[in-house]
Every structure is written in C-alpha cells, then in structure tokens.
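so the lab meeting is tmrw and i was supposed to have these ready like two days ago... anyway. pasting both below. for each one the top line is the aa sequence and the line under it is the structure tokens. i havent really looked at them closely yet so no promises
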Amino acid sequence: MHSHSDPHDHAHACCAPSAAHAGPGYRRALSVALLLNVALFITEMVAGVQSGSVSLWADAADFFGDAVGYALALWALGAAPIWRARLALAKGAAMAGFGVLVLLRALQALLTGQPPEPVTMGVVALLALAANLGSAAVLYAWREGDANMRAVWLCTRNDALGNVAVVAAALGVFGSGAGWPDLLVATGMAVLALLSARSVIGHARAELRQHTAPANAG
C-alpha cells in the first residue's frame, strides 16, 4: 500500500523521489546525479576550508542533502516505506546540523573579519554550477513525470541558482575586498537549509506515524 502525500511536500523535501515505478533509464540518471553531488560535496567542503568561504560550505551542505535524497530514492526501490521515512528523518536531521554548522562558521568569520580567497571560491562555484547543470541535463527527460520526478527536476534547477549566488558572492568579495558578500549568501543559504530540514523532518514524522499507527492499533 502506498502512502498518500502532497506533491507540495515533495517539492519542499527536495530530491527525495520515489523511483519505484521508473524505468532503468531514470535509475541510471539518478545514479549519475548522485555521483555528481557526492563529488561536489567533497570538493566544496575542501575548497571552503582552503579559501575560507562560508558560502561554499553552505553550498556543500546543499549538495549533501541532494546526494542523500538521490541515494534514498535508489535504496528505497526494494525497501519498506517505514525505512524510507526513517532515512528521510535522518536526512532532515543532517541537513539541520549542516545549517547550524554554517551559521556558526559564519559567526566565526564575522568575528575574525578575514575575507575569503575569491578566486578559489569563484572557480569552485562555477564547477558546482556545471555539475548541477549536468544533473539537470540527465534528468531533463523526466521533468514532466510524476510529482516525485518533477520535484527532483525542480530541486536540481533551483540548486543551480544557489551556485550562481556563490559566484556572485565571489565577485562581491573580489570587488570589495571584504567578506560580507560571502557571509550574506552563506547566511541566506543556511536559513533555507534549516527551513528545508524542518519540512523534511515534519514530512518524515508524519509518514512514520502513518506507518506505525496500524501496528499500534493491532
């Protein structure tokens, strides 16, 4: 029995699709997108440390959330619905943790007043943008699919906007010599990550209640 869910919730959950009714082509596309997101998560975390850019950390957190969502979709093909809900809950908690970490890192950067290195920041952000465009390209054929498939497409497309924001922050740091453009973008992205985490956690908890209710009733 399939659980009932609101497509709007899936859009908020972002990249946690159900591929149960998809063909092998869609599964391959999800696998490619998963590998791209894992690679860029690692790259941006390392580059964020080396350049001192907090917005790269925030963008890395976004890649992490997407990678977990893609992995969740692939793993859930043969898993019970309750396990998918449990994994989604773990994903939401991890997203919230990253959001808090980015905010703390932004506060630390604000107190030290040290601006990030804009060239590394901009180059890596452009690489991340290319990766998201690559993900969007492989998922393009399924953009008009069911609510879950469309949520993945919209999520990937919207992530590219976050990459553009980091590029803009790098240009702002380069032009001003100050760190505030990086901190402004990072804070905005961290807040969005926390809001998304809240939505994911709420949706996962609702599904857990739905799946455990029959057992409790029995």
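ok protien two:
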Amino acid sequence: MVFDLDVLRTFATGMELGNFAKAADRLGRSTSAVSAQLKKLEEQAGTPIFRKAGRGLALTEAGETMLAYTRRLLDLNDEAAVAVQNVELEGWVRLGLQEDFGENLLPDVLGRFARAHPKVRIEARVVRNAELLERVTTGKLDLALAWSDATLTAHCEKIGEVPMRWIGPAAGEPGWNAASREPLPLASLEAPCLLRTAATNALDRANIAWRLAFVSPSLGGLWAATAAGLGVTIRTPIGLPAKVRPLKPAELGLPELPSLGLVLHRSEADPDPATARLASILLRAVSEAISDFLPQRVSENA
C-alpha cells in the first residue's frame, strides 16, 4: 500500500483546522474533491477513519494512528523538499520561547531545522512572557512563542488554545481539599504570571481562600515545590515532568480553569528565508504538541 501524499495533506490540514471546508479553501480544492480524497484514504486504509461525534466527526482508533503517521510522512516529505531546494540557505535566526516548551519542543524543532539547513545559526532564548514580547517588539528576537495576554504585536499569529490545569504531586495526595475550609496553598512563578492570575481569579470567583505557599523564578523550582507537596500550582499539560500530574476535574473541589492562547510573534512582516522556514517548522511542531490535549474533532462539512 502506497498512500497518496496529497490525500494525507488534505487529511492533516482538515484535522488542524477542525473543518474540511476550510481545508479545501486553504488547499485550493473544491469541497467535493476533498470528500473524494477522504473516501480514497479510508479505502486505502481498509478501515473507517472517522466516526460520528455529536454534530461532527471524530477519529476512530485507526484514524488517530493514521494522523500520527500522516504528520511524520508530511514532515519528512517537506523536510526533503526544502533541503533539496535550499541547500545554501544561510543566516542567523533569534528565537524566543516560554520555559514550558524549552525541553520538550525546542530539541525537536532545532533538530528538524538543522538537518535541512546546517549553515543557519540559531540563538534560542527561553524566558518569561513579558521579556519575549519586549524583545520581539524591539527587534532583539526574530520569532517569539508566547502565551497570550491579549497583547498584540505588529506581526503575530494565534496558533490555538491550550487548556490550563491544576497540578499536584505525582506521588501521594496534595494534602488539601475544599471541605477543609483552609486556604489553598499555591505554588507559583514570580509575578507577573498569566497563569497565577488565572488561578487566583478562578479561586476568588469560587469563594475559595488561598495563600502563596511558594514562589519561584523558574519552572524547575515550581516543579520541585509542587512535587514535594508544598502547594498546588497551575500550568498547561505541556512539558509536565513525571514528578507532577494534572489533577482530575473537581478532584479537590477546585474550580474549572479557562484555556490559554498561544501566539507566534514575528519582528518583521516579511522575514528572511531562514526565519520564515524556522517559523514554519515551529508552527507545525506546536500544532502537533497542543493537539495531544484537544479532542480530534472536525465538522462534517467536507
């Protein structure tokens, strides 16, 4: 069996956008052509890829497997195409991103980029949100991957929404619940912190008392304090170490949390080829990373 890469690209684009009509528009195809491609994919796979989910469609177990392989196949195809066509790509790219992405996303992105463009040098800076925005607006960074605080830079692109979660120790219990009527001990990064603000706002709305039990300038300190049971913290599910875990909904009687937007900021509207290529790889990697925490559903409208 040899899968058609054009069909796989339509499949991946539709899942990324959550709507195959939008995928048809982006890829310059008619909706009927996209429907035919999806039918062809299921025929090639020999098993259903989609199942009904309310008013939309969700992936079957085979569909989840197919999507994972599809992304890998397309990445390899695109990497090969760019490497062949841009062998002499050179330059210097300055990339900034949040600590949450430093360990689990950055090595993959840098590896993909370096294999295709060994002559391009990259300076990566892992810092807090405020510094990322300041550096990209003043031209000290070419690209910045940051959580959204509603601040828009001149050239930014929203990637998606990531759920926020209450985080506790992986071993043992957090040692607090709403019934105790004791203030919730919070472990937090130093202010200003978007997630800390979201946590305290949610607790205040739920009339749950809280206290700052631990404050850290880095994620490493935050994970250590949370794992030791000094307090409950709030982050997204991205980049969590094994020593902590997301708490189940209502596990401790804690309120629900909103999602957090993720934005890619550029210092220039028309970046140089090296920066544009790194941005493309980064967008793909981030989309894959956040898709693991979101339901894989799409509109039935193909």
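from a quick look at the 2nd one: Residues 223 and 244 are 7 Å apart (CA to CA). Residues 91-161+260-291 form a domain with the D-Maltodextrin-Binding Protein; domain 2 fold (CATH 3.40.190.10). will dig more after coffe
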